[in-house]
């Protein structure tokens, strides 16, 4: 026991000294770091990084620290570039110093210490491996030799889809496309199709590969704590996956070395690599089995890119309009032509389908399999959509593409004139599909009367948009709320209590006073022959009148600046593009692009601004100018409980204030 205490007594101070030397070593560096947020010892800036809105967070930091910013993620020094000029300096002038990927523990293990072409650092070895991939594996001639395999597998899949379509069975695209990709990959790379047992093992390897490469390792961020990887078991899991993968690779290579191998293995990826090894065509590097296994690892890594398609909410497969004439023709320089004798789609008579296949002149193996996946979608989706028909015919309109509809055909620069030209071709009532949204375009007075008067209850609501729903407190205002009982009650409040003739007349003195002050300012500038900018006069006039009518006060310079910034941000977030509006199935992309996070931040700032105004009106010693303004009237209605059919809360008041903000844009 005494020996243990002695070891602790001596070891702990020594450890502290070593850590301090490591931590303080950077401070004695001759070259200063670029500006950046101050970090903590050991963890650096890890605690300051918001991974939920990572790109937006880095952009906010760059506004504070400049276009080149230094961060320390644990042990890793990191430079963040946010200027095109500096990015050009890094990626073009000094590209050789910054072109390598980070050297991560998991990827280093599964890539045989970086012996592949994807994760290898930029050096002579990478250049030789790149030459092997581009010249011997995926040249145009080699890609063309794989054509029959792709056509055969796609034909088999389309045949299976046809059989399900003819019997009206539910089709799961994930269960169809994933086996297709694996089958094509295994035949191109390994020269065979896997049986059920091998396929199960193969999928298990894919899943484990994904887990170990995406796992967190202390070795990457805190090299001094790399022993914790063994303590947590992540290192052992990585070693186990590597052994199983290596065994799988070796079995595939041994099958190709067998003289009695099947002819389907002649000319596949592994056979080409073995020929290169035997012929000793590589002079500057020692091309071994580990190099071949590292390239096979790329095949596994690219199969992790899968597709998960689903129909938008509320849409059934029977509702999809799939009659697309005689198919889709996509013109490309190198086209893949499928000319089957008999089509399995009885609803469409066709003898030829021409679809594009992207030219697979790629720089590495990852690009090849991404292109294979895209090409499969281009081949499959038009034929898949032809299996179903909508029960109710749409109004006439230009034919759109799957998913995006008519978005690619809309010229937004001259939208009214463009829609008018289309209406001359397709008639006074025209159908368009903007992504997920069905749209009717009316260009005739009789049709407009029919929709806006006879069937007005079916068409009187505004479209439900993601940004407006957020800033209007889930449509608790009167402008963007859908037509229902709530809207009718809110309209009654606005017309009777807020903007009746008597109430408007009571605001007359405020309007006259502000207009008088504006005219006086214009007169003073005119008398001194100064240049007059009407925008800088009329916009503050509108803002001041709105503030006094709605909030009962004039803003000082700081408050006015805050108010104008809120107006600008309000306009930006409500006019922004959200995937949720056009492609609901891609709603998660709003968080990835940062637009959803920006909307949330604005909503919190706007809600705080509203709350401050309401609390000022609730103070007993408030100024007399706040008596009788919009917020004061709404608070009286809330206290007097004059509303019976709806629960009138603070959020309702804030939603009506939001309407006042939106008025400032007109």
Automatic annotation (TrEMBL):
<keyword id="KW-0560">Oxidoreductase</keyword>
<keyword id="KW-0503">Monooxygenase</keyword>
<dbReference type="GO" id="GO:0004497">
    <property type="term" value="F:monooxygenase activity"/>
</dbReference>
<protein>
    <recommendedName>
        <fullName>Cytochrome P450</fullName>
    </recommendedName>
</protein>
<dbReference type="InterPro" id="IPR036396">
    <property type="entry name" value="Cyt_P450_sf"/>
</dbReference>
<dbReference type="GO" id="GO:0016705">
    <property type="term" value="F:oxidoreductase activity, acting on paired donors, with incorporation or reduction of molecular oxygen"/>
</dbReference>
<dbReference type="GO" id="GO:0020037">
    <property type="term" value="F:heme binding"/>
</dbReference>
<dbReference type="InterPro" id="IPR002401">
    <property type="entry name" value="Cyt_P450_E_grp-I"/>
</dbReference>
<keyword id="KW-1133">Transmembrane helix</keyword>
<dbReference type="InterPro" id="IPR001128">
    <property type="entry name" value="Cyt_P450"/>
</dbReference>
<dbReference type="GO" id="GO:0005506">
    <property type="term" value="F:iron ion binding"/>
</dbReference>
<keyword id="KW-0812">Transmembrane</keyword>
<keyword id="KW-0479">Metal-binding</keyword>
<keyword id="KW-0408">Iron</keyword>
<dbReference type="Pfam" id="PF00067">
    <property type="entry name" value="p450"/>
</dbReference>
<keyword id="KW-0256">Endoplasmic reticulum</keyword>
<keyword id="KW-0472">Membrane</keyword>
<keyword id="KW-0349">Heme</keyword>
<keyword id="KW-0492">Microsome</keyword>
<comment type="similarity">
    <text>Belongs to the cytochrome P450 family.</text>
</comment>
